[in-house]
């Protein structure tokens, strides 16, 4: 059976970028704090990722001192972050079910049409194809699969709202489930927020389907993983000195 993503590895710079992303994330897992105290650093990474994802969706980043979040976008992003670990197994077995659950969590305060993708043959076919890739239909390096999951869900926008939060969460689950970032230490979402204009341009390029656009997006995602690894190192360094 032909691997539908294999041609992506021949795009200029993609193979090297994927290897660099893998190496950066691996080194974070070797940080001495993360060898034993990774649960604490992973929890901090999860919150930072949720805040950045909410901001990219138009929500605030600050969590009130009371801990009671009233903004519906931020509240949804935090709910997604809290549930993500428990959804990884479902993502590996039944990814469309996991996507529906992610949408329920992300959009609970935004719409009553929860967990149901738009009724469209194109949406259905593309989600089915994405599901087949996640469940073993490709053997490309994990960063490339993460980029495809992220970019396809952003471009397809299968739900009426909260598609960005769902796409970034699905990308994060893919990083975890493939073993690229099994403990969820990286925070590429922060890099996406800091380079939001480039993030948007790259996602549009991916959606165009051109070879140049596909390469632009994958290279961006890989570089955000490297930046996310640096963010993770800063979290671990702070835990070490704190």
From TrEMBL:
Protein name (Swiss-Prot/TrEMBL): Fido domain-containing protein
Highest classification ranks of the organism: Bacteria, Bacillati, Actinomycetota, Actinomycetes, Pseudonocardiales
InterPro entries noted in UniProt: Fido
Domain Fido residue range list: 94-223
């Amino acid at each position: 059976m032909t691997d539908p993503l294999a041609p992506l590895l021949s795009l200029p710079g993609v193979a090297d970028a994927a290897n660099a992303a893998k190496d950066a994330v691996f080194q974070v897992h070797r940080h001495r704090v993360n060898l034993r105290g990774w649960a604490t650093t992973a929890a901090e990474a999860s919150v930072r990722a949720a805040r950045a994802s909410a901001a990219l969706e138009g929500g605030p980043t600050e969590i009130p001192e009371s801990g009671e979040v009233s903004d519906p976008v931020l509240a949804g992003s935090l709910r997604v972050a809290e549930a993500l670990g428990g959804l990884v197994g479902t993502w590996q077995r039944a990814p469309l079910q996991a996507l529906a659950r992610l949408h329920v969590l992300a959009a609970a305060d935004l719409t009553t049409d929860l967990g149901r993708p738009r009724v469209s043959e194109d949406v259905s076919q593309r989600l089915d194809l994405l599901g087949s890739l996640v469940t073993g239909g490709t053997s490309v390096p994990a960063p490339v699969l993460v980029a495809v999951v992220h970019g396809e869900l952003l471009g397809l926008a299968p739900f009426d709202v909260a598609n960005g939060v769902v796409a970034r969460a699905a990308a994060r689950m893919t990083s975890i489930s493939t073993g690229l970032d099994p403990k969820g230490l990286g925070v590429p979402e922060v890099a996406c927020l800091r380079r939001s204009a480039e993030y948007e341009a790259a996602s549009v390029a991916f959606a165009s389907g051109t070879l140049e656009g596909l390469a632009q997006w994958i290279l961006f995602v890989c570089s955000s993983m490297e930046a996310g690894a640096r963010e993770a190192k800063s979290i671990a360094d702070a835990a070490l000195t704190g």
